[in-house]
Design brief:
Number of helices of chain B: 15
Number of strands of chain B: 13
Largest sheet of chain B: 5 strands, mixed
Keywords (chain A): Kinase, Transferase
CATH class of the largest domain in chain B: Alpha Beta
InterPro entries (chain B): ATPase_BadF, ATPase_NBD, CoA_E_activase_dom, Dehydratase_Activator_Redct
Order of helices and strands of chain B: EEEHEHEHEEEHHHHEHEHEEEHHHHHH
Radius of gyration of chain A: 20 Å
Structural class of chain A: alpha/beta
Helix content of chain A: 40-55%
Number of strands of chain A: 10
Protein name (chain B): CoA-substrate-specific enzyme activase, putative
Helix content of chain B: 40-55%
Distance between the termini of chain A: 67 Å
Shape of chain A: globular
Strand order of the largest sheet of chain B: 3-2-1-4-5
Largest sheet of chain A: 4 strands, parallel
Strand order of the largest sheet of chain A: 2-1-3-5
CATH superfamily of the largest domain in chain B: ATPase, nucleotide binding domain
Number of helices of chain A: 15
CATH topology of the largest domain in chain B: Nucleotidyltransferase, domain 5
InterPro entries (chain A): CoA_activase_DUF2229 (IPR018709), Dehydratase_Activator_Redct (IPR051805)
Oligomer: heterodimer
CATH architecture of the largest domain in chain B: 2-Layer Sandwich
Structural class of chain B: alpha/beta
Distance between the termini of chain B: 64 Å
Strand content of chain B: 15-25%
GO molecular function (chain A): kinase activity
Order of helices and strands of chain A: EHEHHEEHHEEHHHHEHHEHHEHEH
Chain lengths: ~350, ~400
C-alpha cells in the first residue's frame, strides 16, 4: 500500500516540534509533507485569506495551509494547542486555530486532523493528544503509543542539542528524517561548538564580538522570510546569537518561580524565563525582543522585559516585524544596537 | 598632501556632504534639499567641493555614507564605511559635546532619541510606524499656511498663547489646525500649538518612561526651527543646545567613522575618485522570478558598466557580479565574502553535504575548531561555575 501523505505546515510551532512530528509520522509508515519555506507569494496568499487585524504569524500559517492544499496531500495535521503547562494556555489564536482556518479557508480541499493538545509540560507525546490522528488513519492504539514514545525520545535528543547551544536554524531546513537523524547523531558525538559558544568569530575590521540574546517566539525568530533573515544578519555582523530555545527547562522554571504567578500564556512564560536568565548573565551584552506587530501576550512581556532590562542594566531593544516592512529599518536598528554594544565593550 | 575624509548623509529630505581633516575640523559643508535624484545631487555636491578647495593639496583618504539612501550612494562613491544614521549622529554629537546626556534628533522622515552616558551612546529609540512630528510634516504645514519653512519657527515665538492641537497623528493634527484656523486663531498661535504637539508626540513615542539627563542636544534638520527648540525647552524645563553644524551632524559622524575604519584596516580608501562626477549613472530594476519571493533586483550602472546589484534576498544576483573580475575589485570586500559564503551554501542542496559543512566552511575554521577543542575543558568549568551562580540567584 502506498504511504499516505500527511501535510504539516511550516509555521507556528513547527519550529518547536518538527523533529517530533517527522519521527512520529515516519514511525507510523506515513509520509510527512512539509509546506515550502515562507516566501512573498506564500505570505501574500495568506494575507489575502486572513482577517486583516490578525497578527502576521497567523497569516503566515494560512499561507502555508494553502500551499499544502496544492501539494495534494491526503490530510493536513494541524493540532489545536490548548496547553503545555499546568494551568496555563497558549495564545487564544492557537486555541481557535483550526476553527479560524475553517472559516478563513472554506475552499480547503484537504481534510484537517486537529487533535487537541492538553499537556502538563512540553512533552506532548501522550496518547490522549493523538486520538483523532489514530482514529482517522486507523492506527491501533498500541502502535500509536509505540510511535509516540520513539518520537518523544527523538525529540528529547534534539532538545538536548538545543540546550547545548545549537540554533533551531541548524536543523529546521531538513525535512528528511534520515538526514535529521544523521545530523543529530553527528552533533551528539563530535565535540564541535555551536556558534553560540564559539570563541573566535570573524568580524569585519576586527571588531569586538558581541553576544546578543534574541528573545522571541520560534515562529518569528526562525522564519527567515518574516524576520528578514535576522539571525544570519546578526552573525554576519559578528554576533553570537542566543535564543530562548537554548535555555534549559530547569533554568526557565527557576526564573519563573520568582514571579508571583506565571503569565496566562505559554511560550510567553518561556521567553520571560529565558530573558531573565540572559539579563543576569554577564556574558550577554544585549537583549533584543523580536515581536510581531499586534501580538497580545507580547504587549505584557515587552513591558516587563523593558523594566527588568533597566534593573539589570542590560542593553535592550524591541524589534517589531510585520507583513510589509522593508529591510532597511531592521538593519538600521540592529546595526545601531550592535555599534552601541561594541562601543561599550571597547571602552571597558 | 593632507588627508580629508568625506562624509555623505543621504536623508529623505536633505543630502549633506562634509569633509573633515585629520583633526576632525570641518573643511567643507554642504546642505542640499533632496529633490529626488540623489546620484545627481551627490555628483553636483562633489563638483562644488572640488571647486571650493584646492584639491591638489588634499587627498580623499576615506569615504563614509549614511542615511536612508546610503546603500545606492555607497556603490556610486565606493564608500569605505556604510553605517546607519543613529551611530553616525551619536558619534558626531559625543565628539562636539562629550558632556551630552540626551540627543534629540529630528530629521525629514524619522526622529530619534539617543541616550548618552560618559560620552558613549547607551540606548536609542527611533519612531516606528508613523512619521508624525518629523520634518516633512512641518514642511507640508508651512506650505499650507503659506509661511516659508525658514520663518516657521520664528513665528511660533511671537505668539503669547498657544492652541491645543492633537499630536498623536498628523491627519488629526491637520484637521485640528484647520478647525482652529476657522475659529480665528492667528498663524503664530497655531504654529506654536503645532510645535508643542510635535514635541508631545516625540515624548510619547520615543522618550516614554526613560529618564532624561542633561546636557540636552537637539540636532537634525528640524533643529533649525527655533519654535520646536523652545517647545522642547518648555517640555523638559531645561536648556537645549543646538550644535553649530546641527544640520550635517550625520555626515560629520560618518566621516569620523570612515576615518576610524580606514585607519583600523590600514587599507587605502576605495573612493572612486572625482572622475565619477563625469560618469553617467543609471539604475535598472527587474523582478526576479526564480523563486516565490519575486525580489525586485536593482542594478547600478556607471557608464554602461554594472557596478552593483542589490535587492535579492538570496544573494545570487549580488554574487553574479563577483564572478566578473573586472568589477570585483571595486566592490566592498565584505560583500564579496558574504556572497561567496552564500554561493557555497547554495551549492549544498544535499542535506548530507550541509551536515558536513555546517560549521566547517574552510580549513581556517577547522583550525579554529581544534583550538576551541583545547579550550573545551576550561569552557566547561566556566559553565559549571555559571550554573552554580544561577542556583544562588534563585535561592536569594
Amino acid at each position: 500500500m502506498k504511504n499516505r501523505k500527511i501535510g504539516i505546515p511550516r509555521a507556528l510551532l513547527y519550529y518547536y516540534y518538527f523533529p517530533f512530528w517527522l519521527k512520529l509520522l515516519t514511525e507510523l509508515n506515513l509520509e510527512p509533507v512539509i509546506s515550502d519555506s515562507t516566501s512573498r507569494e506564500l505570505l501574500d496568499k495568506g494575507v489575502k485569506k486572513s482577517l486583516s487585524e490578525i497578527c502576521v504569524p497567523i497569516k503566515v500559517m494560512i499561507g502555508h495551509l494553502i500551499n499544502l492544499d496544492q501539494k495534494e496531500v491526503d490530510y493536513i495535521f494541524l493540532p489545536r494547542f490548548r496547553s503545555i503547562r499546568k494551568g496555563v494556555v497558549l495564545c487564544p489564536k492557537f486555541l481557535g486555530l483550526p476553527d479560524m482556518v475553517k472559516h478563513s479557508l472554506p475552499g480547503l480541499n484537504t481534510e484537517l486532523i486537529s487533535d487537541q493538545i492538553d499537556s502538563k509540560n512540553d512533552n506532548i507525546a501522550d496518547y490522549s493528544n493523538h486520538q483523532k490522528l489514530a482514529a482517522v488513519l486507523d492506527i491501533p492504539k498500541k502502535e500509536m503509543k509505540k510511535a509516540l514514545k520513539k518520537a518523544a525520545e527523538f525529540w528529547q535528543r534534539y532538545r538536548k542539542l538545543l540546550y547545548k547551544g545549537y540554533l533551531i536554524d541548524d536543523f529546521a531546513k531538513i525535512e528528511d528524517i534520515e538526514a535529521l537523524e544523521n545530523l543529530i547523531s553527528k552533533f551528539e558525538t563530535d565535540n564541535n561548538f555551536p556558534q553560540s559558544k564559539r570563541k573566535k568569530i570573524k568580524t569585519a575590521g576586527k571588531e569586538e564580538v558581541v553576544d546578543i540574546a534574541l528573545i522571541g517566539y520560534v515562529y518569528n525568530v526562525f522564519d527567515q522570510y518574516i524576520n528578514m533573515d535576522i539571525i544570519n544578519k546578526l552573525k554576519e555582523m559578528g554576533v553570537r546569537v542566543h535564543t530562548f530555545s537554548m535555555v534549559a527547562e530547569e533554568i526557565i522554571e527557576k526564573e519563573l518561580s520568582s514571579l508571583r504567578k506565571p503569565m496566562f500564556w505559554e511560550f510567553t512564560n518561556k521567553l520571560y524565563g529565558a530573558a531573565e536568565h540572559y539579563f543576569k548573565n554577564d556574558k550577554i551584552d544585549g537583549v533584543i525582543h523580536l515581536t510581531a506587530f499586534g501580538c497580545g501576550p507580547d504587549s505584557m512581556l515587552g513591558q516587563i522585559l523593558e523594566v527588568d532590562a533597566k534593573e539589570n542594566n542590560k542593553a535592550f531593544m524591541t524589534l517589531r516585524i510585520d507583513e510589509q516592512t522593508g529591510e532597511s529599518h531592521i538593519i538600521t536598528r540592529i546595526e545601531a544596537f550592535i555599534d552601541l554594544l561594541r562601543l561599550k565593550k571597547e571602552k571597558n | 598632501m593632507k588627508n580629508l575624509y568625506l562624509g555623505v548623509d543621504i536623508g529623505s529630505v536633505s543630502i549633506n556632504i562634509v569633509a573633515i581633516d585629520e583633526a576632525n575640523k570641518l573643511q567643507f559643508k554642504l546642505y542640499t534639499r533632496n529633490s529626488g535624484n540623489p546620484i545627481e545631487l551627490v555628483k553636483k555636491g562633489l563638483s562644488k567641493f572640488e571647486d571650493e578647495i584646492e584639491i591638489q593639496n588634499y587627498q580623499i583618504s576615506g569615504v563614509g555614507v549614511t542615511g536612508s539612501g546610503r546603500q545606492l550612494i555607497a556603490y556610486v562613491l565606493g564608500a569605505d564605511t556604510v553605517k546607519n544614521e543613529i551611530t553616525a549622529h551619536a558619534r558626531a554629537s559625543t565628539y562636539y559635546h562629550p558632556d551630552a546626556g540626551t540627543i534629540f534628533e529630528i530629521g525629514g522622515q524619522d526622529s530619534k532619541l539617543i541616550i548618552v552616558e560618559d560620552g558613549i551612546a547607551v540606548d536609542f529609540a527611533m519612531n516606528t510606524v508613523c512619521a508624525a512630528g518629523t520634518g516633512s510634516f512641518l514642511d507640508h504645514q508651512a506650505e499650507r499656511l503659506g509661511v516659508p519653512i525658514e520663518e516657521f519657527g520664528g513665528l511660533a515665538l511671537e505668539a503669547d498663547r498657544d492652541v491645543r492641537i492633537a499630536g498623536r497623528c498628523t491627519v488629526f493634527a491637520e484637521s485640528d489646525m484647520i478647525s482652529k484656523q476657522q475659529y480665528g486663531f492667528t498663524k503664530p498661535e497655531i504654529i506654536k500649538g503645532l510645535s508643542k504637539a510635535l514635541v508631545r508626540n516625540y515624548m510619547n513615542n520615543l522618550v516614554r518612561n526613560r529618564v532624561l539627563e542633561g546636557r540636552y542636544i537637539f540636532q537634525g534638520g528640524v533643529a533649525a526651527n527655533v519654535g520646536i527648540k523652545a517647545a522642547f525647552e518648555d517640555e523638559i524645563d531645561a536648556e537645549v543646545t543646538v550644535p553649530e553644524h546641527h544640520d550635517v551632524m550625520g555626515a560629520i559622524g560618518i566621516a569620523m567613522l570612515a576615518k576610524r575604519d580606514v585607519k583600523r584596516s590600514g587599507k587605502a580608501s576605495s573612493f572612486r575618485g572625482f572622475d565619477l562626477t563625469e560618469q553617467q549613472f543609471e539604475t535598472k530594476s527587474f523582478e526576479c522570478g526564480d523563486c516565490a519571493n519575486n525580489c525586485e533586483v536593482i542594478k547600478v550602472i556607471a557608464d554602461g558598466k554594472v557596478i552593483a546589484v542589490t535587492g535579492d534576498r538570496c544573494g545570487k544576483w549580488e554574487a553574479s557580479l563577483i564572478g566578473d573580475s573586472v568589477v570585483s575589485s571595486e566592490t566592498d570586500s565584505r560583500k564579496e565574502e558574504s556572497s561567496a559564503d552564500k554561493i557555497s551554501k547554495k551549492k549544498n542542496k544535499d542535506p548530507e553535504e550541509i551536515e558536513v559543512d555546517l560549521y566547517k566552511v574552510d580549513p581556517e575554521e577547522e583550525k579554529q575548531v581544534m583550538k576551541e577543542l583545547e579550550e573545551l575543558e576550561d569552557q566547561e568549568e566556566l559553565e559549571e561555575s555559571d550554573k552554580d551562580e544561577k542556583e544562588d540567584n534563585v535561592l536569594v
